[in-house]
Amino acid sequence: MAEADPPREAVQAEAVAFLARDAEAVISTHISRVYLAEDVALKLKRAVHLPYVDYSSLAARKQFCERELELNRRTAPDLYRRVRVLTRAASGGLEWNGPGVPVEYVLEMRRFPDGALLAAQPLPLAPGILRELADTIAAFHAQAEIVSGAGLAPVIEGNAAQLCAACPPFDAEAVAALNAAVRAAYALHAPLLARRAKAGKVRRCHGDLHMGNILLLEGRPVLFDCIEFSEEFARIDVLYDLAFLLMDLLHRGDKAGAALVANRYLDVSADEEGLVLLPLFIAVRACIRAHVSVAQGLVNADYLTLAATALRPGQPCLLAVGGCSGTGKSTLAAKLAPDFSPYPGARVVRSDVLRKRLAGVAPETRLPESAYTREASARVYAHMLTLAEADLRAGYSVILDAAFLRRAERDEAAALAVRLNVPFQGHWLDAPDAVLEARLTARRNDASDAGVEVLRAQRRLAEPAAEWRQVLAG
């Protein structure tokens, strides 16, 4: 069955009319049209030739339909069904998968419910959804193919040129300052970026991981619509991939959501060294959105402000939140984290999560009692302080979330702050036993394995924490 490639305008017009016959609705973008009918979504690639995508030939549209199917089945296999071909019928019209000459290729997807996009959900997003989303992204990145990439420098220079060309409407002085700040941050972190590339942190990622390309299907997050048309855009550092989501959350005003996703991702991926890169990655993502907004006629200068804010250093400090199980340490830590600079907020290092990581299991997996010996706990606390020191040296504030039952454990945290010359605050949470027991009994799907018996043992072991600020958490 030979393929023809007649003038694309005529072919696309014919295919558009054919697909529109049975469509209930059509969603159009600058590079595609999606035809919605019952439980089916048919995606037609528009015959465009732009600086970053070339769908101008029939062969290219076939290739990229097949590539889109292959890539998106990594994360959404139930959503992406097949590539279908419109062929020339004996009557002269079009038909599906006939013996005639192929005229157009279409990607068939399962139609998802209206309102299923993460971008359509009310804010703030539920913590459980955000944790599962971070887990989903981390698992995807762990399995993604290790590749080589062009690096961030071409993106930064491309952004700089586009932003300068957008003055006006953007303020030229503000753009010049932002471009200088981004270049300085890149120069500072270039050695780390190079080390990460050699270590396999550059992978064939999603490439366009904002909230409009994430679904909530039956309450579960699903990544879809990854970039298939540009390997340059998708062969990137995994944290640069994550940064699009973080930037989107920040731009929508959900700072707590951004902090939670970033912390959970680092918890499950153990990619601790990459934390220092997140401000640069967020800023670059925001710069892209800024100049794209101009191209779309929207002129959203908020993205420039976000980018500049992301690169603004903060004053690192160390906080420690202690108390028996059930007092709300993790709740307080999550509430405090987004208030710290730089984006996406303070690094929360939780002993319960770290204990699971050291054991090689997921945070919510229960561990045997042997994982809670005094020696095992000493290793957890030592590792917690090691991570905190690295993050503080990188310019991030850290919140230590642990019981801190013994005075020696609290003293070691305070000593770290003294040694690094950063401010320290210790918060000791407490509540009546009846309240704590009720919370522990009701607790589900949490990194802590503590129950009522553990709480009673903690009460016996706890040494007075008068040196820390006392917080009634009842």
Automatic annotation (TrEMBL):
Residues 65-265 form the Aminoglycoside phosphotransferase domain. InterPro entries: Aminoglycoside_PTrfase (IPR002575), Cell-binding_unc_protein (IPR052732), Kinase-like_dom_sf (IPR011009), P-loop_NTPase (IPR027417). Gene3D superfamilies: 3.90.1200.10, P-loop containing nucleotide triphosphate hydrolases (3.40.50.300). Coiled coil: none annotated. This is Aminoglycoside phosphotransferase domain-containing protein. It comes from Acidocella aminolytica 101 = DSM 11237.
